[in-house]
């Protein structure tokens, strides 16, 4: 525990140092030292998880409640992606901050360490009050980073939307903690209400659909390294909270816990990837894919909880193995994709997909690493995204071969789960084929893209490391067994599951290894054939000539596929879930010949239309009208005070 306390102190010191210096190099060194200290603590815990020095009570109390830091197998597991991605994002920031105005660095380096500190505190907090304080610190520091470029109106809107929804979630968390503070007998009476309040409170932060509406607004607004951390690890604190809440509520999990989370996971996975497919903003597209991947994690959690409630250890082991492993895998490839987006944006000053193109010629390392992240997030072997999704597939199908109480109901649920995962994977592959094809291939759509270059090694190095980890876990998945087995055994003991045998998990790894090795051999063979062809054709003379151009004498970059045209047929197929607005405007000459045409295509988020907009019109807008009472005239305020006193006197006399 000592190493984690050192990390927290160093992060706070770094935040205070920024007010004095605000220099990137000094802050980066202190932050990386803190994160290295946290890594040492994680390694020591995994080497000796039964150590007695796992809890620290602070020497003061708030409202007679002790403030306790504690670490166990679950919290240690969630600290791994937080610490690792934070370290790489900090290195990325060293080069990224050179593109930020000097006077803004003080603000950045003040809130950034607090953000990292708060995420670690959320995972380590054992007492409810300390958890809520850490949760609020995380929300407020990330809010400040979302509105970092506050001169942009959209960023302010995104920040206030994020702050509003996260505070709504905090209200539900306070209700949840009040309910579980009762004795065990009373707690059982409020079991369903406690579960729902926890699900809403933590689900808002996790971005579970339909509580996700802040996510596609906040991620594009924040600086790219912050987007990587918010998407890669901050939303996982919501997943951590849901798991921790289920452990606290009851050792005997009702089956509806798993069923509700499974349904929400399927909705989030399918809905998130469909909305991502229709996006034009690169970071907004990646934000919707975070909703999709949170859905995949929830599918695994739902299956695991169903297995725990029915004493089916096979479902439990593979469901939670897939969910927990996807927590790490998603942090790796989503962090890689957001950092790749940051590299593109800093070089081109452009984030709209349809205005990019041909960047592989100017940014080959970014193109390669981004493509690895795209393949990983699509669940294609032999990359890490396939590994975690495989366990959910394997556990779901394997459970049907053995005895399972309520087989008919589970058969239907298993079929829907497998089909949903297959649909999510197929649509994700289509979406990133669009992104990689339009952004990196073809010809540049703007002349200013020719100046795009990869200059900073501190920007490239984190992406290379993350791409390497995505490939390594995909090809050698057994390296995660020691990391994964500890929290699985911990969860099984907390959920009163009969002693489980991890041999089933090892058997799943064996099957996975055979599949991965087959695909790896196929890729190596394909690579060898391509290189052989290039070698054999290297000395062959090639004649280049124009083909028949259908009357187009001078083809331009505008004739290429755009992001909209690439995905429009799929969006039309799912139009009942993706309401859209389309407008074609054509400017004609006096001879009625078309001179210029513009096609506008916009897809609406159903959750935003059905939930957020009515909330805004019914609650926020009326409150905004009350701002007219704040006119700044003292005489008016004195009148308000007089009327308030008169009302209080009248009320007291009536009683």
Number of H/I helices: 23
Q: Main sheet, how many strands, which sense, barrel? A: 2 strands, antiparallel
The ordered string of helix (H) and strand (E) elements is: HHEEHHHHHHHHHHHHHHHHHHHEEHH
| Low-pLDDT segments, ≥5 res | none
Mean of all residue-level pLDDT scores: 83
* Strand content range: 5-15%
DSSP strand tally? 4
What's the multimeric state? single chain
Q: Measured on Cα atoms, how large is the radius of gyration?
A: 27 Å
Measure the end-to-end span.
57 Å
Shape summary:
globular
List the strand order in the largest sheet.
1-2
Instruction: Find the structural class using helix and strand composition.
Output: mainly alpha
Helix content: 55-70%
List the helices and strands and how they pair.
Elements: H1 2-20, H2 24-47, E1 55-62, E2 65-70, H3 73-96, H4 105-124, H5 128-146, H6 153-180, H7 184-189, H8 191-206, H9 215-221, H10 224-234, H11 236-249, H12 255-277, H13 282-309, H14 313-348, H15 364-377, H16 384-399, H17 407-440, H18 457-475, H19 481-494, H20 503-536, H21 563-573, E3 580-588, E4 594-603, H22 606-625, H23 634-654
Antiparallel strand pairs: 1-2, 3-4
Give a short overview.
With 655 residues, the protein is mainly alpha-helical. The chain has 23 helices and four strands.
Structure in words:
This protein is 70% helix and 5% strand. By secondary structure, it is mainly α. The model has no long low-confidence stretch (mean pLDDT 83). Strand 1 and strand 2 form a beta hairpin. Helix 1 packs antiparallel against helix 2 (24-47) and helix 1 runs antiparallel to helix 4. The longest helix has 36 residues, at 313-348. The chain has helices at 2-20, 24-47, 73-96, 105-124, 128-146, 153-180, 184-189, 191-206, 215-221, 224-234, 236-249, 255-277, 282-309, 313-348, 364-377, 384-399, 407-440, 457-475, 481-494, 503-536, 563-573, 606-625, 634-654; strands at 55-62, 65-70, 580-588, 594-603.
């Amino acid at each position: 525990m000592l190493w984690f306390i050192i990390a927290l102190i160093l992060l706070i010191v770094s935040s205070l140092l920024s007010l004095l210096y605000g220099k990137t190099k000094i802050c980066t060194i202190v932050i990386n030292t803190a994160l290295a200290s946290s890594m040492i603590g994680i390694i020591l815990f995994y080497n000796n998880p039964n150590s007695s020095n796992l809890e620290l009570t602070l020497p003061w109390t708030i409202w007679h409640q002790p403030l306790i830091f504690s670490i166990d197998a679950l919290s240690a597991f969630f600290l791994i992606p937080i610490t690792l991605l934070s370290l790489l994002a900090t290195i990325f920031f060293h080069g990224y901050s050179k593109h930020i105005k000097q006077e803004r660095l003080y603000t950045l380096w003040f809130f950034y360490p607090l953000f990292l500190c708060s995420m670690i505190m959320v995972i380590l907090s054992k007492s409810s009050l300390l958890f809520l304080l850490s949760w609020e610190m995380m929300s407020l520091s990330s809010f400040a980073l979302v509105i970092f470029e506050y001169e942009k109106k959209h960023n302010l809107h995104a920040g206030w939307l994020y702050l509003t929804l996260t505070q709504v979630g905090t209200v539900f968390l306070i209700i949840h903690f009040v309910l579980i503070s009762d004795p065990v007998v009373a707690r059982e009476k409020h079991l369903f209400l406690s579960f729902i309040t926890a699900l809403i409170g933590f689900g808002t932060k996790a971005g579970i659909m339909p509580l996700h509406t802040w996510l596609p607004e906040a991620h594009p607004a924040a600086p790219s390294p912050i987007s990587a951390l918010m998407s890669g690890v901050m939303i996982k604190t919501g997943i951590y909270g849901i798991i921790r809440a289920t452990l606290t509520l009851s050792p005997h999990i009702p089956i509806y816990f798993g069923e509700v989370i499974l349904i929400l996971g399927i909705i989030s996975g399918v809905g998130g990837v469909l909305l991502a497919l229709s996006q034009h903003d690169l970071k907004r597209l990646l934000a919707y894919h975070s909703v999709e991947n949170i859905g995949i994690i929830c599918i695994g959690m739902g299956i695991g909880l169903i297995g725990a409630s029915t004493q089916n250890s096979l479902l439990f082991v593979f469901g939670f193995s897939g969910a927990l492993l996807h927590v790490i895998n998603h942090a790796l490839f989503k962090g890689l994709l957001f950092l790749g987006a940051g590299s593109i944006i800093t070089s081109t000053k452009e984030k709209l997909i349809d205005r990019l193109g041909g960047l592989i010629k100017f940014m080959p390392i970014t193109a390669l690493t981004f493509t690895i992240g795209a393949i990983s997030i699509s669940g294609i072997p032999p990359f890490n995204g396939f590994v975690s999704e495989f366990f959910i597939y394997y556990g779901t199908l394997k459970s049907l071969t053995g005895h399972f109480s309520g087989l008919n109901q589970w058969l239907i649920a298993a079929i829907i789960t497998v089909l949903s995962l297959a649909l999510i994977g197929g649509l994700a592959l289509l979406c990133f084929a669009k992104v990689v094809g339009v952004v990196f291939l073809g010809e540049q759509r703007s002349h200013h893209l020719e100046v795009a270059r990869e200059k900073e090694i501190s920007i490239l190095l984190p992406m290379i490391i993350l791409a390497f980890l995505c490939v390594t876990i995909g090809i050698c998945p057994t390296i995660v067994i020691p990391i994964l087995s500890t929290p699985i055994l911990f969860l099984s003991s907390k959920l009163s599951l009969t002693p489980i045998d991890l041999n089933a998990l090892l058997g799943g790894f064996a099957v996975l290894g055979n599949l991965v090795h087959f695909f790896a051999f196929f890729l190596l063979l394909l690579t060898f054939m391509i290189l052989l062809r290039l070698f054999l054709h290297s000395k062959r003379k090639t004649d280049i000539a124009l083909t028949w151009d259908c009357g187009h004498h001078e083809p331009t970059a505008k004739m290429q596929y755009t992001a909209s045209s690439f995905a429009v047929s799929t969006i039309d197929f799912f139009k009942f879930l993706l309401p859209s607005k389309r407008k074609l405007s054509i400017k004609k000459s006096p001879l009625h010949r078309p001179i210029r045409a513009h096609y506008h295509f916009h897809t609406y988020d159903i959750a935003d239309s059905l939930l957020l907009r009515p909330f805004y019109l019914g609650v926020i807008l009326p409150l905004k009208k009350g701002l007219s009472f704040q006119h700044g005239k003292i005489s008016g305020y004195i009148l308000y005070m007089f009327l308030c006193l008169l009302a209080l006197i009248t009320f007291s006399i009536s009683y």
